[in-house]
């Protein structure tokens, strides 16, 4: 990107109020939410395609962000969409 790691870390903090790890975690969880809402992939596949090496990591982070399990999120989204 043409920036030193220190400069990039400072820019991320200024823009998001967090650090690189926080930003990456939110991006992964957001990707998982999209996959849960738009596909019939298994939880293992959702975890893998979201950048998690295991479903337990996905479950833990997903619950922190959305306050529910990935399975609950999928059920709610599908109910709202009429699927």
TrEMBL record:
Domain of life: Bacteria
Ranges for domain HTH araC/xylS-type: 1-76
Alphabetized UniProt keyword annotations: DNA-binding, Transcription, Transcription regulation
Single annotated GO MF: DNA-binding transcription factor activity
InterPro entries in the record: Homeodomain-like_sf, HTH_AraC
PROSITE patterns for the chain: HTH_ARAC_FAMILY_2
SMART domains: HTH_ARAC
Coiled-coil segments on the chain, per record: none
SUPFAM superfamilies with a match to the protein in the record: Homeodomain-like
PANTHER family cross-referenced by the UniProt entry: ARAC-FAMILY TRANSCRIPTIONAL REGULATOR, HTH-TYPE TRANSCRIPTIONAL REGULATOR EXSA
Protein name, entry field: Helix-turn-helix transcriptional regulator
Species: Mediterraneibacter catenae
Lineage: Bacteria, Bacillati, Bacillota, Clostridia, Lachnospirales
